[in-house]
Amino acid sequence: MRPLALFLLASAAMLGQQRNFVSCPIVRDTKTVPCFLVEYEGETYFLGIQQDITNDFHPPQLKHQVLVEGRVAPGPRVCGGIPLRPLSISVLKEVNLACNTLLPSEPGIDAPAAPRGPGPSSQRPDPRSPPREDFTGRHEFTVPFAFDDDYLEYAATQVVTEAAAYAKRIGAANVKVSGYRATTLLSNGDHLVEKAGLAEKRAQNIATVLRGLAVSNVIAEWKNEAEPGDGQADASRRRVTIVVSP
Prior knowledge:
By secondary structure, the chain is an alpha+beta fold. Helix content is about 20%, strand content about 30%. The chain starts with a helix and ends with a strand.
C-alpha cells in the first residue's frame, strides 16, 4: 500500500478520538499571527492562534506544561497540526524551563484567518452578535474553569455577569452557588486530580463577585470530593453552577 494511502487510513482512524495529555506548548511563527501547537506520541496537534482576550482560546505560556483535552476533528492540518474540537487548555503552574520551543515561519504553513481586536487581523470581525437568550423561571448557569485554577477567564466572567443581571431582573428569592473540583483521566491511563479546597475557593469567589454586583440572597456551597474522570467530559466537571430561583 502506498504511503499516502496509509496516511489517509491512519488519519481516518483517529477522527473523533479523545486526546487528554500533558505536554509542552510550541509556538510557530507565521506571516500573520503566531500559532500554538503541542506534540504527543509523535504527532503534532493544533491548539489555536494569538488573538485578544474575548476569544475562547487563550494562548498557553512557554516555560509551563499544558493539559490538553480535545477530540480529533475532521479537516486538514492547521499550522502543521491536527485540529482538536472541542478543546480545553489548562496551563500548569509549575515552571518547566524545557518548555521553550519557538519555530520559525515556513512557506506553506499559515495561520488560519480569524478576527482580532487591536493588532494585525486577517479578517474583519462579524459585527452581528448572537441573540441573547431570554431566561424565565429557575435557571442554572455554568461557570467553567481551567484545571487546578480558580481564575475567571473572559467567557466565565460573562456567565457570572449574565447570572447577576437575571437574578436582579427577577428579584431572585435565592441564588445558590455550588463549587466542584474534578479528576482528568489522561490518555495514558494516569489521573490528574485538582487540589483539595479548590471547590470551596471557586464557590466563595463567585459568591463574592455576585454580591459585589448587588445580587441578594446568595448562598455558597461546595463538594469537597473530586468528581471522577472518564476521559471524555472531564473538563466540563471543573465548574461552579449558579442556580437562580424566583
